[in-house]
Every structure is written in C-alpha cells, then in structure tokens.
Design a protein that fits this description.
The structure is a single chain. It is built from three helices and 16 strands. β11 and β12 form a beta hairpin. The strands form five sheets. Strands 2, 11, 12, 13, 15 and 16 form a six-stranded antiparallel beta sheet that branches. The longest helix is centred in the first third of the chain and has 20 residues. It is globular and about 55 Å long. By secondary structure, it is of the alpha+beta class. It folds into two domains: 138 residues, Immunoglobulin-like, CATH 2.60.40; 52 residues, no CATH class.
C-alpha cells in the first residue's frame, strides 16, 4: 500500500511539473475523499467523515467535520465488511454498500485555454447507478477551506451516473486550477443538486472522490 501511495504521489508531482511548465493536457487520478481526509488529519486507518454504518452501541455526537449523527450509526471505515450497508448521519439508507462507496474511481483531465479558463473532463466508474452528483472546486488557500461549483455558476456541474455506474463529464472552469485547488465529486443522497452549494454534509451531500492539483 505504501508503494502504491508513493507511486501516485510521484505521478502527481510529475503531472504538476508538466502542467506548470507547459499548456499540455494533464490527467490526474481520483482517490476516495475518505482516504484523502484520513491522511490530512493523520488517522492510522481510513475513515469516511460523511457516510455511516450501523452500530447499535454508537451514541449521538457531533464529530468529524462538525457533522452531527444520530445514535446507532458511526462513521464508515475503509476496512468495514464490503457488504455493510451505508447510511446518512440521520440513519437514512444510502442504498449502497461499503464496497460500492469505497470502490469508486476515475480520472480528471485538465486542459488550459488561451483565455485563462480550463477545460475539465472527468471519467468515472463505480458510482451508484442513477445517482446524482455534482463537481466542486476546493480552495485550500481559504480558511476555512472554500468550495465553489467547478463551472463557476452551479448550472453545468451536475450529472447522473449511467446504469453501470459510469459517467463522462465535461465542463469549463473559469480559471486555471493550481495546487491550492482540488476537483471534488459530491454524491447527493437526496437526488437533488443544490446550485452553488453542496448541500448538508453527511445528510444530503457526501464527498466521494477528490483529486488535488500537485
């Protein structure tokens, strides 16, 4: 696993050099938001702050990312049984298993335009078939971290996964992305998009995949 992380990190670094020095197209792999988050907060194992699994002994609490969950559920872990059903923070079924959630993958391709904008293409697999998603941009240079629709307006950043759980999505970002940014795929468990907002984290909005610019 460490070797894989090292390889991905090296690929990110190399891609960043290419992207910074030329206008060539660059493609980056997505990782699960759970893995990204767990690494950022230095957890020893992967934990998802925005999806949950049943645990009769769990008490209601407000914890990771300020999300409050009801009694009887806890944050899903990357090593939970693959068939474990997942829930929202309010114990509403997500109608997918841990294997389905953590198994999503894909790539994002960035191509700079002469006018300063950037064409973005996402190729995704392993999503919830028919699920509703939107694409946001993280702004790590803001405190707290800011989020804006990747298309800049929230009118062209949403999509629905096909019956096989795949999607190919294209849009144009209003400005070139840098290391201060990431491309974020948000799953909407209420089957609704929320325009310029992501929705209620852990309740209707769940970060699933992320690719930070090197």
């Amino acid at each position: 696993m460490r070797l894989i992380h090292a390889f991905v990190g090296a690929a990110f670094l190399l891609s960043g050099v290419v992207h910074a020095q030329t206008d060539a197209t660059v493609t980056l792999p997505f990782e699960t938001h759970a893995a990204f988050f767990s690494r950022e907060v230095k957890l020893r194992a992967v934990l998802d702050p925005q999806v949950f699994t049943l645990d009769p002994g769990a008490q209601a609490e407000r914890h990771w990312q300020g999300i409050e969950h009801v009694a009887g559920v806890r944050n899903a872990h990357g090593d939970d049984p693959p068939t474990s059903p997942l829930y929202t923070a309010k114990a509403v079924p997500l109608k997918m298993t841990a294997a389905q959630w953590f198994g999503a993958s894909g790539t994002v391709t960035l191509a700079s335009r002469a006018d300063g904008r950037e064409d973005v293409t996402l190729v995704l697999h392993g999503l919830k078939p028919g699920g509703v998603f939107s694409v946001f941009e993280n702004h790590f240079d803001q405190k707290p971290v800011g989020f804006t629709p990747l298309d800049g307006t929230g009118t062209a950043n949403a999509f629905v996964a096909d019956p096989s759980g795949s999607a190919r999505v294209t849009m144009t970002a209003p400005a070139r992305l840098t290391h201060a940014n990431a491309v974020l795929v948000v799953y909407h468990s209420d089957n609704e998009t929320h325009g310029t907002e992501r929705g209620a984290l852990g309740e209707t909005a769940h970060h699933q995949l992320i690719a930070r610019l090197p």
